[in-house]
Amino acid sequence: MNTVAFAFTGVSIAIVSGSLFAPFYKYKLVRIVLTIFRSIHEIFWAFIFLPVFGLNSVTGIFAIAVPYSAIFAKRFYEIYQSTDLRACNELPRNSSPVLRFLFGALPLLYEEMREFSSYRVECAIRSSAVLGFIGLPTLGFHLESFFNEGKYSQAFAILLLFYVIIGTKKYWLRRKLVPVYFLTSIIFVWGNTHVVWANIVRFFTYDIIPWPMRRDGFINNTKQILWRPSETIDWFFTLLRGEVLPGARDTLILTQITFLLSGVFAILFIGLIVRKINKPLSRKFNRILLLVLRSTPEYIIAYIAIQLWGPSMVPGIVALVLHNSAVVTILTIRNADSLVLPLDVAKGKINCFFFHILPQIYSSFLGNLFYRWEVMVRESSILGVLGIYTLGFYIDSAISDDRMDKVIFLIMFMSIINIVIDSVSNKVRSVLLE
Amino acid sequence: MTVRYLIFIIAVIFLSVLFIRFKQDESRGAGEKKIQFTAIPDQDESRLTERFSQIALYLSKETGVEFVYIPVKSYAASVAAFKNGEVQLAWFGGLSGVRARRAVAGARAIAQGEEDKQFVTYFIANYRTGLTYSQQLSKELEGRTFTFGSKGSTSGRLMPEYYLRKIFNRTPGKIFKRVGYSGNHSKTIALVQSGSYEIGAVNYRVWEKELKEGKIDLTKVSVIWKTPEYTDYNWTIRPDVTEDFGTDFIDIVQNALLSLENRDILDTFPRKSFIKADNSMYDAILETGLAIGIFDE
């Protein structure tokens, strides 16, 4: 219940603030800030908000709302750009821009915005479930407890419940019911919400200041902040050498292995479910399997895999590959199914697939794979929380040492990596799609 | 028609959930101020809930103020909750206690278990390693896989890491092939017993309790070394409770803990009794933490 409530409130806030930011997305500054917001995973947002708001609903809601706002802003802006807005020209010339937007553009954009929002609700439910692993009262919380104590049947029941919620989305997520859900969610989370202003102030003006600047004040208990440029630079470089670089290296290794294997597996999966060469029954079965893989958050797959094999790169790779190759397959399969094959099609399924189908869908497949690239980096670093030595591992350690200055620094660095990868993947994709 | 019907049903269900929720809030809001307390999640959650719901009842009865246990998922979260004033009292380990008291000026350690004066960590090993108990930590540990408990644990991380560094003169990452953090002591035992890790460091109270409950198979996992003694767990309280509950409230809570004689409750910890503690008893922990770089100096 909390899972859905967090997801709903988070997405609702995100839609509103995302729509507010969307018109300004063309400005560089706004775009940079929103890209940073977007590049930080929900779990890391929760890590940041946890010491600020404490263990209550606000943390969960904001952890979802902040990155999702940025995503909505970007997507809404893209929708706005790609829609044919000539109809607006028919409106009276002296009408205000706001009215023009509301009555001219919005009806044209509405359908696409609605579709995207509904898709994002599903993502938010997934994120919200995962937030349970770090202590918020969602499904992940119980899943982790049961797993930890070896109560696998209960854990499995929770997982099933999760699939039921996601799987039945199209039955319960109806336009008319949205206000009901929204109200329920708000009131549901309202009860356990309290924010202590002093904690927020302390976090932003004290906790995240680099340690060398706080050091003297801390020792003589005046909590004074001194300007210590040379020590701060030392602190900065020690961190860079000791944690950022090894963490970044492992994150990238994990990402690249995942990237390659996901590609290979996705091709295999496409081969297994493409309409032209598979029997309906096996196709259906494989498709369901893929849907399950896609809707299981990779964090949960990795968690389970780590329970089985202990923390190393292997479970991380397995989790990321399974999840991402399923996503890429589902994104690409629509293209593959709509292909028209020539009459003199090669005999044999394998020949047919590799010589007819694959070449035709290859560029869209690569496009989708590169689209997931940036997501993979984000997910690789997150898996560090589970004990694989990626950036997330160092962030988690810094959190358990209560060193928020380090946490912020590491997260900022991670965000930079994400942004670089994101822009590279955008370039590659625009070349591919031409 | 059916769709409409379905929508109606769902709406009704949701509204009734809301209604129940409101009722709960009312009954809760009417009460007086209460103390919320937490604890480091050092072992299985169901056991923690059992332990702390009992002591909450006891403390509520003794002090006349309602005590409510707030479970958390990590050591860091328990410290953060204490630091933010979301909880006023906490059952910390040595390390988390020091961390919390460093963050909240005036916070005091008021009690510890009788056993916490001389706490030790057991190093345990899977039977396939062929290692057996000895007075010294064997050099054969090198190159094996090793798991600590939580990153923020005294007996599962701080002390074992300190002695490993002292004996081998290297960081654990350099001694072992792979170093993990299982999350809690029950988990460490399970992982070493199953062979996921060859060696582990575990809180001796948790080990002995699980041994008594028959959860440990001694043919598969056994103790190979004990660390020297150190001071561990403690009850720590925030100074601002005196504002809400009176100037002598800290003493009242302290006395209630010290005079706890109910065996059932004490066995859940498991401790013989609680004795007086103060902040200076944990100075050695602070020193150790500084030495291995867990604390900033």
Written as H for each helix and E for each strand, in order along the chain, the element string of chain A is: HHHHHHHHHHHHHHHHHH
| Mean residue pLDDT of chain A | 79
Largest interface: A-B, 44 and 51 residues
Helix content of chain B: 40-55%
Q: How many beta strands in the DSSP annotation of chain A?
A: 0
The helix count of chain B comes to 12
Widest β-sheet, arrangement of strands of chain B: 2-1-3-10-4-11
What CATH architecture of the largest domain in chain A would you give? Orthogonal Bundle
Q: Return the CATH class of the largest domain in chain B.
A: Alpha Beta
Task: Tell me the span between the first and last alpha carbons of chain A.
Answer: 45 Å
Continuous helix count of chain A = 18
Poorly predicted regions of chain B are: 26-31
CATH-defined fold name of the largest domain in chain A? MetI-like fold
Instruction: Give the CATH level 1 class of the largest domain in chain A.
Output: Mainly Alpha
Describe this structure in words.
- The complex is a heterodimer of chains A (434) and B (297).
- The mean pLDDT of chain A is 79.
- Chain A is built from 18 helices and no strands.
- By secondary structure, chain A is mainly α.
- Chain A folds into 2 domains: 2-201, MetI-like fold, CATH 1.10.3720.10; 230-433, MetI-like fold (Orthogonal Bundle), CATH 1.10.3720.10.
- Chain B has 297 residues and is an alpha/beta fold.
- Chain B has 2 domains: 34-117 and 231-291, Periplasmic binding protein-like II (D-Maltodextrin-Binding Protein, domain 2), CATH 3.40.190; 142-226, D-Maltodextrin-Binding Protein, domain 2, CATH 3.40.190.
- In chain B, 45% of the residues lie in helices and 18% in strands.
- Chain B has 12 helices and 11 strands.
- In chain B, the strands form 2 sheets. In chain B, strands 2-1-3-10-4-11 form a 6-stranded mixed beta sheet, with helices on both faces. In chain B, strands 7-6-8-5-9 form a 5-stranded mixed beta sheet.
- In chain B, strand 1, helix 2 (45-63) and strand 2 form a beta-alpha-beta unit.
- In chain B, helix 3 runs parallel beside helix 4 and helix 5 packs across helix 12 (283-291).
- The longest helix of chain B has 28 residues, at 2-29.
- Residues 26-31 of chain B have low confidence and may be disordered.
- Chains A and B meet through helix 6, helix 9, helix 11 and helix 17 of A and helix 1, helix 3, strand 7 and helix 7 of B.
